[in-house]
Amino acid sequence: GVEVGPQPQGVARADVLDKMRKIVKHGLDFVQLFNGGQEFPPCTIEVFKIMEKVDYPRNKNGEIIAIIHPKLQDQDWQPLKNGDPLFLTLDGEVIPYQGNCTVYPTFINEAAYYEKKQAFVKTEKFKLTAKHLRLSV
């Protein structure tokens, strides 16, 4: 499957549809080249591994008491370091990220995840090396 976004629920965006078409076309091009015998050289790619889901700060009644900080909003896949602004309380207090390593948040403030108690997902960045690839006959 391919998920391309972000895109609000119930909204059809031309730019997101165009991205989806491009990635599907690249995938089909790869399959055609691979099946045609093309050899692909080794390569290194960056990947992101999910570490944990992070909830919004809540009071004892389970009500959200802070929102995503404006400096974090729309910064999916960007580095988040210790001390960076994370949440903003309704009183204007900044709640900073407190972590021992840089993380890469994604699915930041996605409406579909409110009911799942998820403000964002913390990921860590890795580099993977793929060996050369070719069709075995």
Automatic annotation (TrEMBL):
Task: Name the GO cellular-component terms.
Answer: cytosol
Gene3D superfamilies this protein is in?
Zn peptidases (3.40.630.10)
The source's domain of life comes to: Eukaryota
- Signal peptide (UniProt feature, chain positions): none
Gene name per UniProt: Aspa_0
Name the InterPro entries for this protein: AspA/AstE_fam, Aste_AspA_hybrid_dom
The record's annotation in PANTHER family points to:
ASPARTOACYLASE
What molecular functions are annotated in GO for this chain?
Answer: hydrolase activity, acting on carbon-nitrogen (but not peptide) bonds, in linear amides
The protein, known as: ACY2 Aspartoacylase
Domain AstE/AspA barrel-sandwich hybrid: from-to ranges: 44-125
